């Protein structure tokens, strides 16, 4: 089979084909359609390497439809492929380095998300952008109001607009914040529409309902976890998953000494941030009987809150992985006895599983129908 590599850029694509260690064809094109004569259905099938990037899913689908074998390359391991060596890096050189790595069998493969999880990831990305935009606008509006010596009551983010309308603000302040409110109002509706689509996608994912039974984990955290991991069984153990998410300490073993530093922060940063936020929620819970909370309190006493919250996020990721792997809901007694490993050994009764899922559905319903709060912190996630 022909060996080809593509370096996908924002404005152009570098094409390189290799045979017996020699470059036999090069090209630089502006779109994938221009490569149809080389890689299309009428051409001889090829083994094509592409780096994991924004357009990789689309390119993978098109090339596969054309009859090629597509290799998705893990960009975090580009050094072992030879990309960037000797401070020489451009599209042509990168494409050639990829092609040579394919021929020599040195390609570190990345995982390709299933189509349904790709859709879920896209909707979550849209929601994230809307939530962050809303948080920025709310912060700006609050600052403009305070700048004039006026105040509005604290409230949850979803009730901010109603709170502003009810507040006694001067005409001058209302005129100042009017353009921002004009954008914020339709943004809230767009956010509600996106969350409805996410709920519909989550309804087709039984694993999300299972994961949402864990403490500190709601629909968005569970959906983000599923959309990033895709398949729990592609990880042999919880530690490999935690390492994949960048929640394990960085390590330096040079000179015969093992030095551990801060977490590596590899992998999906947004999911890591959500897990940390879930860990904070666990630390703030009133339930002192939950094993994760008791374990977190013990770490807080030894190392302090900042280190404890990362440790809880790491352990929570392992527990979620084990729950998903075994198809179980969160059982505090089981976690207390054996942690993440015990979730495989002890099977749960159907009555317990059904009751837990029912409680989770009721919690979601209460959250949707709860009345507006007058006081409380605003969440940006």
CA-based shape: globular
Rounded to an integer in angstroms, the radius of gyration calculated over CA atoms is 25 Å
In the sheet with the most strands, the strands line up as 3-2-1-4-5
> Which runs of at least 5 residues are low in confidence (pLDDT < 50)?
340-352, 373-381
Number of helices: 16
Strand percentage, roughly? 5-15%
**Helix percentage range:** 55-70%
Topology as a string of helices (H) and strands (E):
EEEHEHEHHHHHHHHEEHHHHHH
Counting structural domains, the number is 3
The major pleated sheet works out as:
5 strands, mixed
Question: Any overview of this molecule?
Answer:
The chain has helices spanning 36-39, 56-65, 78-81, 91-104, 115-147, 160-166, 171-203, 206-211, 219-229, 238-244, 269-284, 291-303, 305-326, 332-338, 342-345, 350-369, and strands at 2-8, 13-19, 22-29, 46-51, 69-73, 249-252, 259-263. It is α/β, with parallel strands linked by helices and 381 residues long. The protein folds into three domains: 2-104, Nucleotidyltransferase, domain 5, CATH 3.30.420.40; 115-203; 206-348, no CATH class. The protein has a five-stranded mixed beta sheet with strand order 3-2-1-4-5, with helices on both faces. Strands 6-7 form a two-stranded antiparallel sheet. Helix 5 (115-147) packs across helix 9 and helix 9 packs antiparallel against helix 11 (269-284). The longest helix is centred in the middle third of the chain and has 33 residues, at 115-147.
